[in-house]
Amino acid sequence: MSDSTEVLQGTLDLLILKAVSLGRLHGYGVLLRIQQISGDRLQIQQGSLYPALYRLESQGYLTHEWGESENGRKAKFYRLTPAGRRRFKEETEYWQRFSDAVGLALKAMPEDV
Amino acid sequence: MSLRSRLFVWLRNSWQPSDLDREMDDEMRLHIEMSERELIRQGIPADEARRQARAAFGSIDATKDECRDALGLRLLTELRGDLRYAVRLLRRSPAFTAVAVLSLGLGIGANTAIFALVDTVLLKTMPVKEPARLYFVDNSGGKSNGSNGPPYPCFEILRDHNRFFSGLAAFDGGGPMNVIIDGTPERVRGQFASSAYFDVLGVRPILGRAFTSADDRPSAEGATDTPPAVISEVFWERRFARSPDILGKPILLGRTWVAIVGVTPRAFRGLRPGSPVDLTLPMRVSENRLTSKAYWWFSVVGRLKDGASVEEARADLDGMFQAYMTDLGLKDSSRVYFNQIALVPADRGLNDLRNDFATPLWIVMAIVGLVLLIGCANVANLLVARASARQSEIAVRLAIGASRGRLVRQLLTEGALLVTLGAAVGLVFARWGVSTLVRFLAGGQGSILLEPRFDGRLLTFVAIVAALTGLLFSIVPALHATRVDAAKPESLRTSTPGRRARIGQALVVVQVTLSLVLLSGAALFVRTLQKLNSVDAGFARHGIATMRVEAMLAPLDSSRDAHSEHAQVAQMWEGLLERLHSQPGISSVALSTMSPMARRSRGVLVDVVGSPPRSESDRSISLNHVTADYFDTFGIRLIEGRAFTDRDRATSTRVAILNRAAARLYFGDVSPIGRLVKFTGQRIQDPYEIVGVAQDTRYGSLRKDPERMAYLPLSQAVDRVGSVIVGVRAAIEPAGVVGGVRDAAAKTVPGSAVTDIITIDQQIDDSMLRERLVALLATVFGALALVLACMGVYGVLSYAVLRRTREIGVRLAIGARRGSVIWLIVRETVLLIAIALAIGIPMVLLTARYVQTQLFEITPADPLAISAAAVLLVAVGAVAAFLPARRASNVDPMVALRCE
Questions:
Q1: Please, which of B98, B534, B549, B654 could form a disulfide with B688 given CB 3.0 to 4.6 Å?
Q2: Contact B837, B873 (CB under 8 A)
């Protein structure tokens, strides 16, 4: 088994929000940023990235503007909207509670029951 | 993000799908390029890097689809694709498209046009404030449906003392009025109304004012100002070109001057559908009727107070009404029609027109509904035929993974496109149809003036009908088409054409059955019209023109002797008659107070001198004052005795002629000649000697049995005759004599007005307006149904021939005669039509009962009508079958055998 982990269903949105919350990014940038901040431990299906971006945008959490990429090409940059920022906070808190709970549950020993 | 901005994003993307597409393309290509560059940077060769980058990303197109999905745009994109595809298909088969769109257009158009009438006449509420709180006060216990209000003095009591109405207003039936505006005589449709009329209805004038309570004061109480007149916006536009200066303009009505004070908005044309009012005058202008305590002549409308119940309001009014009637001292026997107060909903106005036209209109609505169904069957049939032609395409699409739902959606899109085109064509037909029908109804003397609008209501109706139609004709073919088995190769799919044929046959049976119902109905209505046209009306129908001449007489003077007063007026009319006799071109002329088919009648009570008293209903009789040549002019035969002559003068023995119905009731088989009758309760009480018996004539309607009638010489009239009908038989066109009558009247009759110029033929036509309307529409739509059904038969048989080409070829090759091949095909038609008749005839017998009231002297199961329809269908079906059958017989066996 490799040391990179497939992103769980449903957590991709949260990761995208996190990536974009650190500054505006184009699509490929989002991919790189997630790999970078997860220490290359998270693998993202490239095909599923864009539908997720479009969904988040249509839900109003992201907005985009056109700019220039590092190599001087026209590129579409995503950033968080205020609603996206709120959503990111909520999702993060939820994730913390959820993973704590799951972590706790998994630590349980026969004698604790 | 707010819903609105989300909607905005969605809209922007859906409006400009190509922009979105390009943006997605740019974005994803950049992505792949960058990841390729990254791989190259890691030392992977360029070609391999490109391959890996693409592989990692996957299909751009699939991703784009998913993105559109994420935006909620996928449905739309697919719809757009379906639509484009459908347009292409329809373009490719223009004949199919034309037939389908025309079938649907005719069906939808017919339904829309008839619904426009149904809505205007039967359904629409009055354009007034809260129409549901309005009630007519009917004092005949609801029998007259609101058109019968109490006498004016009683109305005043109810108006001033009721507790549950916020207002009560009286208004009369309205009708044509002769007025003079700016010196020009004109005929306008006017009515009288009490001052609260516009307030009660909540109609606000768009210019000037409505009535105020001061306008109720009769001039006897010292009102000296000019009475006000309120005109409609339509009249304002037509006559005054919307000039704001018309306020204060004087109008002369008879001897009274009135002045325009206001204009009511366009939508409001009075409370009587079909007879719009242009001029409303206060009741006091017709003052001599206001004080009459037992004169029933107008309607009352009231607005119920909030929270008041209909029952308590009725009881409240009825208490006052009963007290009034007791005071009046009317005998119970004469209170049959005026027994109690009933409140009749007024939201849709007075319902004379509704009563007359409800059944005919619903019948026609049902007819056009059936026509649309037949059209649907046609389109369904065509679609099934085409769908089977497209089976291989559909099989391929199913095989490569298209979902059945998706395919059904595609086929439904086609249906929706067809029906939309059909509806558009239908609207054009409907516009034309509505204006034709409106002209037809307005044509008669009874002038039913309707103003249907193509408003939101009508468009909603069209949309609903179109949607149902579309669903109806495309769901069967769509489901049928997708039942294709993708896995089965084409050559093994032999069962499907059979099923397709069965669906086609079933549809044809439906079409022929419905056509039979429509044609039988049309035959019934046409036969009714024939019967009416051939019924013995008792008078000559052709070559007679009538017109009314009105005189302006001094007010009745009750102190004068009736004999001399009536004789003086009669002398004036005789002066007119004398002049008319000398007019060129007139071969026979008579004056009378009633004329056949004129729908006016004067009822009196008659007593036979020396006979025991009879019941009130037996004593009532219609009275007609006529001059000597009346019977000759109108071709009414005398059965017994003599006609009137010039020797029957005011001073000679008073004489009368009874019609047969009256003679039979009062004298049985004994001759009435020489007996005396008196008209009790009239101003002249002298006995009249019966000198003749005339044959019965139908006066009001050809449908009704003749009423009892007494004829008196005009010179011996019991009434003071204020207007007469001039009946003329002329060698020249009736229109040619009008000028002469006008001249003669101007010279002999003070303040004369000649109106209601019409021939007896026209009046008969008018009296049969409903029958003609229904017969005409039933015939037109019956013919349309026949054509549509023919197309169905032709289509199905053509397909059958095509399908059986090989079989026919084999038969011919082994020696079948061409005649037997033709029979092979025709047999199918005969079978289909036989099935349709077997279902259709019981259906006709079942449904025809509902039109019974509209028939005349034939039963709903009229064998002639039904068999005529059946024969016509069989004949036309045979013709439709003949073309494909002949094609079959001309099949070349060799070609047929090679064709597969």
A1: B654
A2: yes
Tell me how far apart the alpha carbons of residues B885 and B876 are, in angstroms, rounded to a whole number.
14
Confidence of residue B486 (pLDDT cuts 50, 70, 90): low
A72 contact B CB<8A: no
* C-beta of residue B833 within 8 angstroms of C-beta of residue B515: no
Query: Please, what are the domains in chain A?
Result: 5-107 (1.10.10.10)
Provide the token pair at B174. 């309205």
3-state secondary structure B181-228: ECCEEEEEEEEEECCCHHHHHCCCCCEECCCCHHHHCCHHHCCCCCCE
Highest average pLDDT, of B67-76, B219-228, B796-805, B814-823, comes from: B814-823
Please, which residues have CB within 8 angstroms of residue B482's CB and are 6 or more apart in sequence? B394, B398, B404, B407, B408, B411
Contact B1 A74 (CB under 8 A): no
Hey, how many other C-beta atoms are within 10 angstroms of the C-beta on B818?
Answer: 15
A57 Cβ under 8 Å from any chain B Cβ: yes
Question: Are the beta carbons of B6 and A58 separated by less than 8 Å?
Answer: yes
CB contacts, 8 Å: A34 with chain B: none
> What CA–CA distance (Å, rounded) separates B689 from B702?
30
**Alpha helices per DSSP H over B753-817:** 760-767, 769-803, 805-813
Residue B1 has pLDDT above 50, yes or no: no
pLDDT at B428: 95
Nearest CA in chain A to B60: A47
Q: Which of B83, B50, B828, B845 is closest to B413 using CA atoms? A: B83
Residues 84-113 of chain A whose Cβ lies under 8 A from any Cβ of chain B: none
Q: Is there a contact between A51 and B70 if contact means CB atoms under 8 Å apart? A: yes
Predicted confidence (pLDDT) at residue A2 exceeds the cutoff of 50: no
Work out the angle between the directed axes of helices A27-37 and A46-58 (0-180°, nearest 10): 110
Please give the residue of chain A at the shortest CA–CA distance from B36.
A28
Does A54 contact B35 at a Cβ distance shorter than 8 Å? no
What ipTM score was computed for the predicted complex, to two decimals?
A: 0.86
Return the biggest CA–CA distance within chain B.
138
Question: Which residue in chain B is spatially nearest to A43 when comparing CA positions?
Answer: B56
Place B492 in a pLDDT band, splitting at 50, 70 and 90.
Answer: very low
What are the angstrom distances between the C-alpha of B16 and each of A75, B86, B166?
19, 21, 58
* Residue type at B707 in one-letter notation: E
| Percent of all residues in chain B with a pLDDT value above 70, rounded to a whole number | 91
Give me the half-sphere count of Cα atoms (radius 13 Å) on the Cβ side of residue B436.
Answer: 13
Is residue B2 pLDDT above 60, yes or no? Answer: no
* Residues B400, B394: Cα–Cα separation, whole Å: 10
pLDDT at B720 over 90: no
Determine, for residues A76 and B23 on separate chains, whether the beta-carbon distance falls below 8 Å. Answer: yes
CB contact under 8 A, B31 and A46: yes
The answer, for B66 touching chain A at a CB cutoff of 8 Å, is yes
Q: What is the pLDDT of residues B515-572, one digit of tens each?
A: 999 999 999 999 999 999 888 888 998 889 999 998 877 776 767 788 888 888 999 9
Is A71 an 8 Å CB contact of chain B?
A: yes
Cα dihedral B602, B604, B610, B612 sign = positive
B518 or B177, which is more confident? B518
Pull the structure tokens for residue B883. 């073309």
B48 against A7, higher pLDDT: B48
Q: Which residues contact B32 (CB under 8 A, 6 or more apart)?
A: B53, B54, B57, B60
Given an 8 Å threshold on Cβ–Cβ distance, is B34 in contact with A28? yes
**B70 at interface of A, judged by CB pairs closer than 8 A:** yes
Contact A71 B5 (CB under 8 A): no
Nearest CA to A28 out of B57, B456, B14 is that of B57
Q: CB distance from B63 to chain A under 8 Å?
A: yes
A61: nearest CA partner in chain B: B1
